[in-house]
Design brief:
80 residues; alpha+beta; four-stranded antiparallel sheet; 2 helices; 18% helix; 41% strand; globular
Length: 80
């Protein structure tokens, strides 16, 4: 599902999605295709954001593009 489709189905809401297809442009990961898991209430958005599994993100549909900023910190360890 394209991000625009999610925006049309769930206007002005937080949603939890799985990233299916993306590409990088510098320090940005541009999400091309997602699988919608469910909508998230405003009250629960912060909690859902921090407990999201790898490959999932909580994002607000008011944003025209779904973009994740990549942090490349040499002192930060990332488990893969």
């Amino acid at each position: 599902m394209k991000w625009q489709e999610v925006r049309e189905l769930f206007p002005n809401q937080f949603v939890l999605v799985t990233i299916l297809k993306s590409h990088e442009d510098g320090d940005r990961k541009i999400i091309d295709e997602v699988a919608l898991i469910y909508s998230v209430s405003n009250e629960e958005a912060n909690k859902e954001f921090f407990k999201a599994a790898p490959g999932n993100i909580v994002y607000h549909t008011s944003k025209e593009e779904c973009i994740v900023h990549i942090r490349r910190d040499p002192l930060l360890r990332v488990r893969r």
